[in-house]
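REVIEWER CHECKLIST
Item 1: Sequence provided? yes
Item 2: Single chain? yes
Item 3: Sequence as submitted:
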Amino acid sequence: MEFFVVGIATLIAAIVVAIGLALLRRALRIRRAWHGGRTSEARCLRVFTTVSGGDSPTTHRSRVYEFTTREGRTVRITASGGPDTVLEGDTVMVRYAADAPEQATAEPYRPVALAVGMGCVGLFTAVAVAVLVAVTVAVLTAGGPEEEQVPDGFPHGYVYDDPNG
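Item 4: Structure as written out by the authors:
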């Protein structure tokens, strides 16, 4: 039982931490692209929409951009989200770090929103892991039903006094 509880709690904690780290990496990539100092005009090659969900579907729009770096290298990126006004053939400004043009972004830089979002992700991750640890410790330290203390010398088992015997 203990192995099962610890295993499930560890698995959930690992998933929560992995998601938190992925979101942190994404935020740092956006920040690095904006502070990388390089800009280029990118042409929107394709706009595509994905639909997910059952009863209440969610649509998500993504775009494929192509731009040329200062060194003359042509790079294609896929950016999710963005304004609905950008259509195929439009040009937008992309920002990228010199050593990672394939991590360019066409997203607007919103440092406060990025910081608040990362703070919320970090707080959620810390609280989730703390709750998992607390529940695991509570389950593992909770005793079973209290057994009555039997005094020394008390007969164990069934005692049957036969009046005939």
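Item 5: Key structural point noted by reviewer: Residues 81 and 117 are 16 Å apart (CA to CA).
Item 6: Recommendation: ____
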